[in-house]
Design brief:
- This protein is an alpha/beta fold.
- It is built from six helices and seven strands, in the order βαβαβαβαβαβαβ.
- The chain has a single domain, classed as 3-Layer(aba) Sandwich (Rossmann fold), CATH 3.40.50.720.
- Strands 3-2-1-4-5-6-7 form a seven-stranded parallel β-sheet, sandwiched between helices.
- Strand 2, helix 2 and strand 3 form a beta-alpha-beta unit.
- It is globular, with a radius of gyration of 17 Å.
């Protein structure tokens, strides 16, 4: 897909992987709309990158349809690419986890992601084409100590990706899951401050490059899933 003048909706675009992906998409000539929880961050990035932006919490299930309609309207009624990047994590031993932790993570990582995508499927079907990128994690493939809540949510995203691939290919809609291992971002930081790049860790740039490469493949083909590992993180 040629990215110039394509309309792209990217959730979780105010920091980390989302912000870097938005920046690189704009450099390719795409029209990008980002979403995020922080109004101030969204406004700052809109001015800095020249993107569109809508501030909303994807875990607010009742308002997803309204907010998605707002995004589609700002994009002129067409969405060529959806990048489901918004996500949160809660970590700890199973006997210390409460139901609130499960609900918070699943409302964002699973239910919000799925319901926002649901609202956009009719738009893509009408266009007879579209690309959906779900940002998973290495935790989509293998669980880990203290990862019950987060890994379960990312396993669920992988299941959604596989189901949508089967459902949407007849409508020329491509679905891909991108699974990064640890990336130096604000994710999992209590203060949500960005972390400095480390030579031995992945940075948002590597993930953004992968996402864009997948989108740029000609529409006659797609990559169902890709795993990204740091070469030597030790």
């Amino acid at each position: 897909m040629e990215l110039k003048n394509k309309n792209i909706l990217l959730t979780g675009g105010s920091s980390g992987i989302g912000k870097k992906t938005a920046e690189m998409l704009v450099e390719k000539g795409a029209k990008v709309l980002i979403t995020g929880r922080s109004y101030d961050k969204i406004e700052t990035i809109k001015q800095h990158l020249g993107v569109l932006g809508v501030s909303f919490d994807i875990s607010d299930i009742e308002n997803i349809a309204i907010k998605t309609d707002e995004c589609v309207e700002l994009l002129g009624g067409r969405v060529d690419v959806l990048i489901n990047n918004a996500g949160i994590g809660e970590f700890g031993p199973l006997d210390k986890i409460d139901v609130t932790s499960f609900l918070e993570v699943f409302n964002t990582n699973v239910f919000g992601l799925a319901l926002l995508t649901k609202e956009l499927i009719p738009v893509m079907k009408k266009q007879s084409q579209g690309t959906i990128i779900n940002i998973g994690s290495s935790a989509s493939i293998r669980g880990f100590k203290n990862g019950s809540v987060y890994a379960a949510s990312k396993f669920a995203v992988r299941a959604l990706s596989q189901c949508w691939q089967a459902e949407l290919r007849p409508h020329n809609i491509r679905v891909c899951q991108v699974n990064p291992s640890e990336v130096t971002t604000a994710f999992a930081q209590k203060d949500r401050k960005e972390r400095a790049d480390l030579d031995h860790k992945l940075s948002p740039k590597e993930i953004a490059h992968t996402i864009i490469s997948i989108i740029e493949m000609r529409n006659k083909g797609f990559v169902p899933e890709v795993n990204i590992w740091a070469t030597n993180p030790f």
